[in-house]
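Let us work through a complete example step by step.
Step 1: write down the sequence.
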Amino acid sequence: MSQERTEAVVLRAADFSETSRVVTFLTPHRGRLACLAKGVRRPKNPLAAVLETFNRVELVYYWKEGRGMQPLGDAALLDAYAGIKADLEKTALAAFPLEIAYRVAHENEPSEPLYAALVCGLEGLAMWSGPAQVHACWQALQLLCAAGFAPSLDVCAATGRPIQIDRSGRSSALGFSFDGGVTCSPGHGDRPLSESGYAALRALVQTRERCPSVEGAEEIFPLIRPYAVRQLETDFRCFRVIDELLKGT
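Step 2: predict the structure and record it as tokens.
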């Protein structure tokens, strides 16, 4: 058993006993990492606040090959992303990319691109002043791309034909397939995709450093949600809360 130190983001936590909790992290070098935080549920334990979901921390744990949970040694807070937690809409929508990271990361597997995309997204959202749905779309797409699930943009996901753009820069009627991405006609996709929606989708996928300001999030977000479900073959726990939130906006 060896002591290891790493940066990490808290993805989720679950009570393990009356005094302990299992905390799951995303780390750059070990991928998804589950640690047993003994005593963290005791009153006034300082680690309880450090190990809140979304937090970026410096983590010390004791690694043993083949063990499902590693004992947590210590954790220090690096960033709590107060700009997210102070905003109910941001908090709810940020749960979507966080859950993508949880689903696509593998245990004990290097995950530097995925970790970098998650941290970049959290830092950006904390300071974001635009519509939170736009940023959630961008974060989700960046994580999906980092994990190898990028939607097709230039070639029809159904036929393999190039997506046609006329001289005016306007695309022909398009669709979007939850199995692969943009399609050359609405009939080949699960839903139609407007010209402005196509432009927004391209910008959200291709802009890596920070979320671009785009219009059409109300069209793109309902596409990315089922796309992520289909690609990762899983349901998302966060959607129930997000739907309740968006119902009131």
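Step 3: interpret the result. The chain has a mean pLDDT of 93.
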